[in-house]
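Support request, please re-run this one:
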Amino acid sequence: MADNINFVNNVPLYEQVEKDIRRKIKEGILKPGDQVGSHSELSEHYNVSIITIKRALSNLINDGFLFTRVGLGTYVCEFKEQKLNLTRHKSVGLVLRDLRHQYFSLIVSSIEERAYELGFNVLLSSSSNKIEREESQIEHFRKLGVDGLIIASLALNYRATDYIKKLHQENFPYIMVSYIHEPEYWYVGSDHEYGGYIATEHLIKLGYKNIGYMHVEKDNLLSEIRKNGYYRALTEYDRSYDSKLIYTSEIPDIEFGTDRFKLGYQFGKEFKKLEKKPDALLFYSDLTALGFEQAASEEGINIPDDVAIIGYDDIFLSQFASIPLTTVHQPTDKIGRMAVDIIQKRIEAGDVGNRTIFRPTLIVRDSCGFKKRERINFTEGATKNI
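Re-run finished. Output below.
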């Protein structure tokens, strides 16, 4: 095999040549002012055509890594990207849905901590809830020469976008920290089905009879997976499943983020009108549960006496609600740190499985009525009382 060129790889040869020359510049093998070699010399070195070499060099010139001197050859630039220290340290680009989102902000904190320990630079961007910006940020980071990407995608169908598919096909080091349903893509996160299960199990053991589940918008795959855990707990404890206790928002075009609160708030305003009321509710997310709690307070609905509630995510605000929220805690610290570890292994061509899944835990506070009912001993490690 020619120098870092794999002729059976699906990645185009010109991109492999470009990547190898870029690597040599970043590692100081090729220094500013060095000549990279003539077209014929590079063609012989990489065992590829001169056309392939010309295309690779053209891209590097356009990106500011190389420049040409007419009749003299192609040389390494004193390029601006050196200000980012990408030539001295490994770097990872972090593409997020929204930097303001509390769940992902927790992951960012652990990513930055672990990256610092391993000597990575972290380049951070927010897609600001725009899928086209997410794609442009991925492309921008790659042009800057990052060694890997950590992505919280905006694609709420939880399937790989064309850009994720391209990264995967090219074997570029990346990892998803937002849920992705397709098992062949690289993902680190928590077991959402198990989270729905332990929350529902908790309500069952507290003696609640009519336990409902609050979806978000229709066809939300992640919400459906959490509901699967809800359904499994009912089945294992011989409780009947009642479709009338499954609630779905009728608000069209729900956007990710603060609208989750509005969704729960609207449901709380309509709760008294329900023909069959649950005595306990599991919500898709903390924001939805907190919206419900706000409306319930305004409508004179007592939590947990009239209805017990459990959220999902354990965002920062959940512990400071007027009625502190029982919730499913996702291990954001482990997820963030593992994301960086996986990127490092993939950069080094290490053997890493496609999916790394951590089990969530239940954080028990006041909203489920735990203090007013019999205390239950759960499996060790399954719950934590605050």
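The chain has three domains: 13-82, 85-189+333-358, 192-330+361-385. The first helix runs from residue 13 to 26.
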